[in-house]
Amino acid sequence: MRGDDVGSTELSLISLYEISKILSSSLDIEKTFHDVLNLLSSYMQMRRGVVALAEGNGDVRLAAASHLSRDALKRGACRFPLQILERVVSTAMPVVMGNAREDANFADYLADHEEDDVVSVIAVPIKGAERTYGVLSIEREWDGGVQFKFESDVRFLTMVANLIAQTVRLHQSVASDRERLIQERARLQKALEKEADDRALSAITDIVGESPAMQRVFDEVRQVAPLKSTVLLRGESGTGKELVARAVHSLSNRKDKPFIKVNCAALPETLLESELFGHERGAFTGATQERKGRFEMASGGTLFLDEIGEISPSFQAKLLRILQEGEFERVGGNKTIKVDVRLISATNKNLEEAVSKGDFRADLYYRINVVPVFLPPLRERDGDIPRLVQYFLGKFNNENGRDMHISADALHIFCRCQFPGNVRELENCVNRVATMARGETISAVDMPCQRDQCLSAVLWRLDAQAKPVGGLGNAALDPRTAAREAVNRTHGHDHDEDVYARRARERELAEAHDHDHDFDDQDIFDGGDGEPLLGSGGLPQRDRLVTAMERSGWVQAKAARILGLTPRQVGYALKKYNIEIKRL
């Protein structure tokens, strides 16, 4: 081997080594191609060079060109003929042009050269095991047409192209994996968001109800949940206020924080203060250690105060401060603690009436009654009873390992009941009937009301001794009137032989007949046993009548129910006392 051949071989090895270092130094493939072309210009006396990559649609794109920036390349500053590049890619064979000026395709590319310059162009494919990735091409001065020189250049450039092919394959593999990971991440993110949405929406879907009244509640819950506004849930006992409170929490941005609930009616005032605010060690007898209150436990989340209308006036002032300032002290402590709590309250009481009587602080009322949500009683939820019956029956079957069904006639009886105890009473009724049914199917004969054994009906048919239970009674009604109205609406069965309903109708007819004649004031405002109605506290009879009319919005029929009279009696009394009826 001649000495110059040895020197050329050593130079080639050094070049390949340096090129391999460049290709492995960065994931910016276009930058590495540009650096490779610069190195080739130093080792091979190359004037210019290009690296082109084949696109998936068959086109060829210039990825790098020596002496040109990326922006210049994008603007089309390199005019290397794409036809040559496409020929190399399609044939996967090198192209050698000893004098590129003889090819018209290179006229624009070599336009800036001297006319007497003879330029050679060598283009080799960048091939992988299965495909051609692109083209590596260099331009150099023609070397007098020595053939072996071109052959050695082609061999050297082919080795460089093989290194480039490995880099392109690695880059495409990394890009493919990155794209796959991005898509997988997006899919997982979407799945997590959907799961979170489903989990949040399940808080509403768990509340069985497709009636227009419940759909209005759901719309209000979705609207108020994302905000921080204080919510007051209003409605009769047993309408599902706690479920709605959980739905508000689950649909809010606090859903991952605690949801703490407290029944204010279940604890005396002293224990309620310790329960909500916590206490320090030694604050009172039995306080052997420090204890956090529910407000601290709910910090960042939601606190649900059920039966808030039952708290005492003295405790209302303590509660007002934390709602206004967001801070409090534990019982027996002097350190001020700040918390961030969203408050949801619930009550079945008429808070407006309690405020007017002085039983509930007006400032606390305004503080908790920011966004009121009214939950309809079951009797106003048309079409929900069949779904609720099936839901509670399925729940009974799961808990007891049964496979109970309900017949159409039994379901029809459920639908005709009014259920003054609302959803809670309906659930108890379903459990009672399912427990006592003889077979696997609940039929009409299994219904207690068919045998005059409905416990709820007995409760609400109590006459003078009946009192509203758990806030179910109308707070504006006299207890006797509330019980009498409950009798009339407890069950919608047309049982003419129902002794209680018959007695109620007879009593009303008798009262109407008696009061068709003259009567005195004592007849109007006494309840038969001399007890004044409306909780008058000794008010004059005219004032009691005006109070009842104002409370009923000047509707005589409603005022009659409040006073326990007939509309005819109320009309007579208005004329007697010369009370002008207001038109609202």
From TrEMBL:
Molecular-function GO term, any one: ATP binding
Domain Sigma-54 factor interaction, chain residue ranges per copy: 207-435
GO biological processes: nitrogen fixation; phosphorelay signal transduction system
CDD domains, per database record: AAA
Coiled-coil ranges (or none): none
Pfam families, per the entry: AAA_lid_14, GAF, HTH_8, Sigma54_activat
Keyword NAD among record annotations: no
InterPro entries: AAA+_ATPase, AAA_lid_NorR, GAF, GAF-like_dom_sf, HTH_Fis, Nif-specific_regulatory_prot, P-loop_NTPase, Sigma_54_int
Family matches, as SUPFAM superfamilies: GAF domain-like, P-loop containing nucleoside triphosphate hydrolases
Keyword tRNA-binding: no
Keyword annotations from UniProtKB, A to Z: Activator, ATP-binding, DNA-binding, Nitrogen fixation, Nucleotide-binding, Transcription, Transcription regulation, Two-component regulatory system
Oligomer status and interactors: Interacts with sigma-54.
Entry function: Required for activation of most nif operons, which are directly involved in nitrogen fixation.
Protein known as: Nif-specific regulatory protein
Organism this protein belongs to: Insolitispirillum peregrinum
